[in-house]
Amino acid sequence: MAPKKTPLADPVKEQPSECPAQAASAEPLAPGKTTTSRRDFLKAGGMLSLSSLMGAGALMAQSDEARAAIEWAEHFQGNYRLMTPKEKAEARARLEKRYSAEYGKKVTVDGTEAQPNVLMGYALNVRKCIGCRRCVKACVAENNQSRGKEAGQNIEWIQVLKMERGEFSKEKMNQGYPEGLGIQVGGNAYSPAGTVLEGQYFYEPAAVPEKDATYMPIACMQCEKPPCVKVCPVRTTYREPDGVVVIDYNWCIGCRMCMGACPYWARRFNLTTPVLPKEEMNPVTHYLGNRPRMRGVVEKCHWCLQRTRQGRYPACVEVCPVGARKFGNLLDPESEVSLILARKNVFRLKADLNTFPKFFYFYD
Amino acid sequence: MKKLASNIMILAFCCGMISSAFSADTICFESRKGSSEVTKRDLKPGLPNVKCSSKTGAVLWWGDPFDGTVPLGDMPLLGNIPPGKAVVKPRAEKLAILPMCAVACHNGVGPTFIPPTLPKDKKPKPLPTMEGLLPDAKNLQHGRGGLWCLDCHHTTQRNKLVNNFGDPVSFDQPQLLCGKCHGDKLRDWRDGIHGKRIGEWASTGKKRWFVCTECHNPHNVQDGARNRGFIQIEPETPPQLPRGMKNARHELLPGVSH
Ligand code: SF4
After folding, report:
1. How far, in Å, is the centroid of ligand 1 from the Cα of A134?
2. Whole-number CA gyration radius for chain A
3. Between residues A228 and B70, which one has the greater pLDDT?
4. How do strand A359-363 and strand A120-125 relate by DSSP bridges?
5. Cβ neighbours of B203 in A, within 8 Å
6. Listed residue (A87, A81, A79) closest to A240, CA to CA
7. pLDDT digits (tens, 9 = 90+) for A211-243
8. Largest CB tally within 10 Å, which of A105, A296, B12, B242?
9. Rounded Cα–Cα distance for residues A90 and A93 (Å)
10. How far A95 CA sits from the closest chain B CA (Å)?
């Protein structure tokens, strides 16, 4: 079970560190050792102070005492970025234990930090993309998103937008100017807004690519100046030194400010308890990456941190059947992404917002 | 005699197809249907070699990107890649009729296949046996009528392709042939900008390269029903509709003009 998360319970996390419960995060997790009495004490103390705030049954209901202690400690751990390396390791060990029990297999939670001299970059060839959505599904196969049948239970990080292709034809040469004093918003070259479709996410033809369609996959742009990071009231989302914007899901209070701030519609909210079948769960995880999330937290693309920090391509890069997706180190002039920046026509989505994405679109 | 041989061949080919259809294995395709295929299995308990789409049968995820690969052979201008860092999946063993090519019909010694008696013009002639085995041969769409079989296939060694100098090229290295005309694409492919690679992202890392014919079918690259170089394929399912949205018909109406 995911730790109980209610908006009411969360301010407790912010209590000063003298709070006895806060110390639980530094408590080495050793069930059956001499620490039992102390843990019982903490538990009782916490119960008293919290019983008015959270459902009293939340922790009592745990039949397995060790697991209850894990969730207890997890609930009161600090912001991952501010933890000492020791605390981080303990937090990961706790999660490994909980996930392994929950999913019935050995789950690893990696904590590999950013490597020096690496600035990850991504490039996508919009001319090549055929809109097959394989990247979307590969992402789900890798990143442990919720995949239930009910509305709101199916989370996908990549969206593929189908757009009508603008045409440069002689007949339309003088069309498409805004009427009167209008300013043209939308539409495409030679076709004013209101006559072309604005874009489709739910297209479902028998085969892609369709004629006269352009496909534009959109996910987190890993901005250099991310608006989502600016607005997060608890600073649980932040930019790592290798350029990836990450979320400490445990510290997220689910206020969804970041979702409102993101100009790229990249963030998703776990409105319901995530539905993740045991056999489909990917046991290779990273703390800031694809570890299973809980209800009430925000998640988004993190360039498969669990893979890329180990040197492997992100899942969407590997799956793209047309090779439209490229990934590499922007600081390495020989990397695929650097060569694309040097040779191809490149643009960034909504560059005028000064978010400086590390995700580039290009075309041949 | 020749007829008998070809009939036997067709029979053997069909048997092969039927037996594979009846086995319980899940077979997924990697880039496009009809090209490199993989049989699903466990690399070790809990780690599948591939995860496949239940809708289209496409491979979505590789457990081990280097499973079943061999080193990419020599290629000009690839001196900067350390040995063993570039690997490919051998194509030759996947091409179902290739083993028969050089022995059954096109052994290179039959009277009609010795170069002096090659046809005068380069117009492909209908060869019913060939078309039966390889339906694409009926409707060659490459080079806008300017190409025929032996521009790409070796005259006497039919299990080989042919390079610029008339030398045989393995089916595992089609880039040596394709690059003859598509030099710009070859350069981009060499540098990792065109085409697909899986494995390690560092420029010095080990990668499995996908060769030209794993993604493009050279016999119908110009298929008129699409507008790009890649064959049309079935897309994966669209995203879930948000709570309360009955259908996505609003997307099919033009927006309001401003
Ligand atoms: S897998 Fe590649 S071609 Fe298919 S939708 Fe994604 S980016 Fe486009």
Report:
1. 6
2. 23
3. A228
4. parallel
5. 328-329, 332, 334-336
6. A81
7. 888 899 999 999 999 999 999 999 999 999 999
8. A296
9. 5
10. 19
What residues contact A176, with CB distance under 8 A and at least 6 apart? A184, A187, A188, A189, A190, A191, A192
Q: How far apart are CA A104 and CA A281, in angstroms?
A: 10
Contacts of B205 in chain A (CB under 8 A): 311
Tell me the pTM: 0.81
Please report the domains of chain A, with CATH numbers, ordered by start residue: 120-158+219-363 (3.30.70.20)
Distance from CA of A204 to the nearest CA of B (A): 7
CB of B29 less than 8 A from some CB of A: no
C-beta separation of A333 from A345 below 8 A: no
Residue showing tokens 């916490």: A46
Any CB–CB contact under 8 A between A104 and chain B? no
pLDDT score of A22 more than 50: no
Ranked by mean pLDDT, the top range of B61-70, B85-94, B229-238 is: B61-70
Residues of B in contact with A312 (CB under 8 A): 65, 199-201
* Three state DSSP letters for A188-232: ECCECECCECCCECCCCCCCECCCCEEEEEECCCCCCCCHHHHHC
Output the DSSP codes for B95-134.
-TTHHHIIIII--S-SGGGSGGGS-SS-PPPP-HHHHHH-
Q: How far apart are CA B162 and CA B147, in angstroms?
A: 13
DSSP lists the bridge partners of residue A110 as A286
Q: Among residues 37-96 of chain B, which lie with CB inside 8 Å of chain A?
A: 46, 51, 53, 58-62, 65
Residues 202-241 of A with CB under 8 A from B: 202-209, 211-212
CA distance A348 to chain B (A): 18
Are A319 and B228 a contacting pair at CB < 8 A?
no
Nearest residue in chain B measured CA to CA from A268:
B242
* Residue B89 to residue B219: CA distance in whole angstroms: 21
Q: Which of A94-98, A147-151, A358-362 has the largest mean confidence? A: A358-362
**What angle, 0 to 180 degrees and rounded to 10, lies between the N-to-C axes of helices A36-50 and A65-75?**
60
Collapse the DSSP code of B48 into the 3-class scheme (helix H, G, I; strand E, B; otherwise coil) and give the result. Answer: strand
Q: Give B22's DSSP letter.
A: H
Measured between alpha carbons, how far is A281 from B73 in angstroms, rounded to an integer?
Answer: 38
Render pLDDT for A294-332 as a digit per residue (tens, 0 to 9).
Answer: 999 999 999 999 999 999 999 999 999 999 999 999 999
Quickly tell me which residue has 């979320």 as its tokens: A247
Nearest to B232 among A182, A208, A212 (CB): A208
From the number of C-beta atoms within 10 Å of its C-beta (0-12, 13-18, 19+), residue B5 rates as: middle
Ligand 1 center to B235 CA (angstroms)? 9
CB atoms within 10 A of CB A37: 8
Distance of CA A139 to the CA centre of its chain: 11
Pairwise CB contact (< 8 Å): A313 & B236? no
Instruction: Using a CB–CB cutoff of 8 Å, tell me whether A113 touches chain B.
Output: no
Determine the number of helices (DSSP H) and then strands (DSSP E) in chain A: 10, 12
Q: In whole angstroms, give the CA distance from residue A347 to residue A358.
A: 11
Q: What angle do CA B20, B24, B28 make, to 5 degrees?
A: 70
